[in-house]
Amino acid sequence: MIRRYRVGWLYTMCGAPIPDATIMVEDDRIVSIEETGIWHDAVDLSQWAVMPALINAHTHLEFSNLIDPLGTQGMNFTQWIMEVIRYRQGFGESLAVEKAQAIRSGLKQCAEHGVGVVAEIATFPLMEVAYERPDVHVVSMLEMLGLDRGRAQERLDQAREHAVYPWSHENVTPGLSPHAPYSASKGMIDQCVALSQQHQLPIAMHLAESLEELELLERGTGPFRVMLDNMGLFQETDFPGGKRPADYIEQLASAYRAMVVHGNYLTKPEIALLKQHKETMSVCYCPRTHAYFRHDRHPIESLLADGIRVVLGTDSRASSPDLDLWAELQHVSETFPNIPAEQLLPMVTRDAAFALGLEGSFGTIDAGQKAMVSAFAIGSDCPDVLTAMLGGQPRLWNLGVGLTQLDLATA
Ligand SMILES: [Zn+2]
């Protein structure tokens, strides 16, 4: 059955926005786009602007039950990590149940904020039951910690299973996340890159996130050294000094798709290196988490000037007030008013889909793509659609299920 939707403004993300366009949908896929709305049976969405379903490129849904972020604003980064560890320990034996419940709640919160794709860092493998939500696609990126040699091998075995697991829900695809330079060994990252190549998996790694991380890499000292010493995980061979985030960028560059998460302290030579590898690499900026830790100004403008794909993530509710991706984009717009709004939209759609290896289904509105869209009420004769969208709140719509299930209350 073909369904038709006549929309006021269509932002396809593969060309200029189209006024008065009709989207044809069959089952759960878009069949075609027509530039004039001549169909008498089309659902009237003339007071709406429609774009591809928003993509949250980085979050940890296990923290979605938190009301407020952990710790205090501007705190030392390693102090915050200790808060995270304490929070998890607080659940004792019921941690797995808590995580599954928080992930389910997190997916619901994402959908309520117009988000249709979530790249979520999974700390337990194969949390299948938690991902049962057909309107939100989950990229389940298994977190890989590698400094504890005893547990590293077990985790690699889990990663191999994760990469090929026959998920019973169609809305799940796998990925891997070697966690960060202070928690994943060089060997572990190499193995992740090899699995990425073998199975065409996206990889995400927290990198150049804090000054403490840079100190550990450069000199093998600082708060991270103290933290790892206390955990019995510090080894000179892992942190000999003289290292930079650039070493990790080189390592990640040969993955199928690799995302540098945060990149708050990327320097000029590192940005030049990312530019060399921009066919496969992206940077994920988490704006309100960045603000929570009061990091130095983010290098997003330099990254964009070099044509590097920048995508946006909420990170988790352990460092951000909620899972509202559009609020993250609004934050970028306010912090960097020189970045045109047109350049912000691909960060949460087309470019994020590519970074996660999902460009064949998400990120653009085109024939063959999934019929999941984000919609903004703009009313009739809107003088400035983009500004109205920027100030608005997106709704997530599955155009494959028909009007009765669409929430058109304010249309
Ligand atoms: Zn993160």
Automatic annotation (TrEMBL):
A GO MF term: hydrolase activity, acting on carbon-nitrogen (but not peptide) bonds
UniProt keyword annotations, A-Z: Hydrolase
Keyword flag Hydrolase: yes
Residues covered by the Amidohydrolase-related domain: 50-376
Leader sequence segment: none
Record carries keyword Hydrolase: yes
Catalytic activity, EC: 3.5.4.4
Protein name: Adenosine deaminase
Organism in which the protein naturally occurs: Bremerella alba
